[in-house]
Amino acid sequence: MDLAKQFYQHCQKNSFFQPTDYLLIAVSGGVDSMVLLDLMQRCFAKIPMAVVHFNHQLRENAEIEQAFIKEYCQTHQLPFFTANWQEKTTTNLEAQARKARYRYFAQVMKAQGFTCLLTAHHGDDQLETMLMKLVKYGNFQNLAGMKAKSVLPETTLPLCRPLLFTDKKTLYDYAHEKQLTYFEDETNQSLDYARNRMRHQVLPVLKGENPQALNQVARLSEQLYFLQEILEEMQDTWYDTLVRQRYDTYQILLEPFLQLTPAKRYFALQGIFHRLSLKAQIPLKEAHVAQVLDLLAEKRLTFVLSVENHWQIQASQDKLIITRQKEKVTSQDFCYTLKVGESIMIDAHRWVGLFVAGEEKIPKKVKHFSEFRHEFLAELNPVLTLRPRKPGDKIALSTSLTKKVRRYFIDEKIPTAQRMQAIVVLDASKNIMSLLPFVNSYLSIDAKTDKIRYILVYRYIE
After folding, report:
1. 412-440, pLDDT tens digit by residue?
2. Dihedral of CA 329/460/364/361: which sign?
3. Domain range list for the chain
């Protein structure tokens, strides 16, 4: 069967485009895109189509190729759109050129109302792409190749690659048979580029080992996309089950998480971190997944891991907390007195108020914060002092047990970040009556009934 017939049947089977579409064909002037253009004209001449060319101005023959494509389109009465790359870069040239090219294609599609962009990627390109991804990423989610039907980068504009089913040699044979004019990009022979090294040094070996290598890779890519679809559904379920959000803080419930098998834990955590990296721009990476899983495997349920951009991962007994790092509080940061009916916003994450029981007034801005309450009896109008903890602070936990605050934190396995945010509450005698938001002193418990009942309310973001 000749290529034109295969191409027609392949496009029809996969419903790449419809008679009502308005197609834009990306043409560089190389053999791949010139074959694609010829096939489209032969097989789908009744569908409106146009040509787009982006001149990177990186090679001597770039203007000659641009002029040739323009003349070709005039001869065949095809609308032609072209632009030159003006803002060149000296770093990561290949990737930046691709971004600029697709950005221009998107502009033309939007401005002219095209319904789909066609590119001439073929089976050899697919194998090269997957090998480069394997070397670069090392995980199966990123290993899958190009989809035959996709979208332009950073848009929702349809993109179609109808030549993925065939190989480079077949395109050359077709071009020679039909006597098509095309240009060879001399930079494709340079081993300075990773893709060219794959093309000239690795692909020939693989094809030599198995002539069906391209078909095998196409099947593998399809299977990987199917697996990814199934996995994403599972990861969505795990996220909804395990993750709780409060403002810019995210909590992962450890009890149900640890009940998962090791394999499910890995993919659940990977999915959660990936979603948070997209949804909240938290720079969570594969390395963080491995670190957390290793620490949990060692039965370490309290730890703190720093993440870029002032984020951190805290494990606190039954939760994994992902939050922004707060500035460390020192004994010099604040010392407040608090009277009945007053409240203080210590910072954006912490609010404290003192009220007669039943007369609490909680501001709306802290309505959804976590809460710690301390009810106590006292003489009329007590005055409390609030400050950070200091070395040597002690709290009376019972008639026979007084602990240093430092020892209490160690015994209760309180994470370092939470220790730094603790607030010490002193009564008029300078005794510690509460350690917010962790524990109250037994000294605040009074059985006398002739005293007034007060409530110290602490609202905070964990």
Report:
1. 888 888 888 899 999 888 899 999 999 98
2. negative
3. 3-211, 225-324, 336-460
